[in-house]
Amino acid sequence: MHTITAIAHPNIALIKYWGKRDTVRNLPATHSLSITLNTLETHTCVNFSAELSADQVYLNKALADDAFSARVGACLDGFRTLAGVHTFASVHTSNNFPTAAGLASSASGFAALLTAANAALESPLNLRQLAILAREASGSAGRSLFGGYVIQHRGQHSDGSDSYAEALFPAKHWPLEVVIAITSEKEKNIGSTEGMLHTAATAPYWRAWVDRSAADIQAATAAIKQRDFAALAEVAEASCLAMHALMQSARPGLLYWNAATIELIHKIRQLRATGLAVFFTIDAGPQVKAVCLPEAADKVEAALKAVPGVLRTLRCLLGAGARISNDANTE
Ligand code: 2P0
């Protein structure tokens, strides 16, 4: 079989996923709602070959470490079981943005992996099946299969069959822009999975966080439908701050922010008070994502660059879902 390359983009949750209702099947405790970005890309080449006696995984042109290879292998095992594939694969994956620094590289990585693997089949799996496999690999990964505005359903069933991502609105419905302020290039100290388990086990506000999720999804969906920026800003900042307050209430508390993260929160709120359409969101890392209307983006970027501790900024529009690349493969 020939090598197939897929491209996927990271996504950023506006209503956050944090915590699992089942760790074996990786079922989220909350719904989540995200936007898929453009500009930032994962390229993944997959080649199934009868000559291989194990999966071979390369990350950013180097042999991947055991932990990363094991996660990729587990995702491929799930795929092989469902698709009836019996061969191992070589996988070359690369990101054009920092890996594991709170920019959702696992989401775009698994979305690209499954999209490339699926394209090798004569009878491909459907998107719902891929979304479930992606979610099993990483709770936010199913969201990167789709472009624009995406929902990841928490689901009720214990087998996870109703816990999948699906498209909510296309990017063109409301083309927002995102300015990402990078405040550290280091990998985070505590991975999301570990952080979630620790939070669920020790945070006193856990139940309140889980119970709030459905209402926040409803409010965000309505705001996006009506293109109501103020309403989306209110609920997205609330979800972000509630998630971080929850993490901080764990014992010991998880603090993903640095000093610049906090300065950026204040700056973005000041900018909004002056009439600029911008709000912040922050994931399990110190970077701050400023979501804005395109006409505000130049001023927002200039203001964020001037905040002490900001190393650089990235600009993204809303992007497309995972897809096959027609470019020559990147091995
Ligand atoms: C999100 N995050 O909704 C939240 C907000 C980080 C903060 O999804 O354990 O890598 O693989 O299911 O998807 C990052 O967590 O976690 C994440 P696993 P994942 O975007």
Describe the protein in words:
- This protein has 331 residues and is of the alpha+beta class.
- It folds into 2 domains: 4-172, 2-Layer Sandwich (Ribosomal Protein S5, domain 2), CATH 3.30.230; 177-317, GHMP kinase, C-terminal domain (Alpha-Beta Plaits), CATH 3.30.70.
- It has 8 helices and 16 strands.
- It has helices at residues 66-83, 105-119, 127-137, 192-202, 206-225, 229-248, 259-273, 297-305, and strands spanning 4-8, 11-15, 20-22, 27-28, 32-36, 42-49, 56-59, 62-63, 88-95, 149-152, 165-169, 177-182, 278-281, 288-292, 312-317, 323-324.
- The chain has a 6-stranded mixed beta sheet with strand order 8-7-9-6-1-16. Strands 2-5-10-11 form a 4-stranded antiparallel beta sheet.
- α1 packs parallel to α2 (105-119).
- The protein is globular.
- The two termini are 15 Å apart.
- The model has no long low-confidence stretch (mean pLDDT 94).
- The structure holds ligand 2P0.
Bound molecules: ligand 2P0
CATH structural fold name of the largest domain: Ribosomal Protein S5, domain 2
Shape: globular
* Multimeric status of the protein: single chain
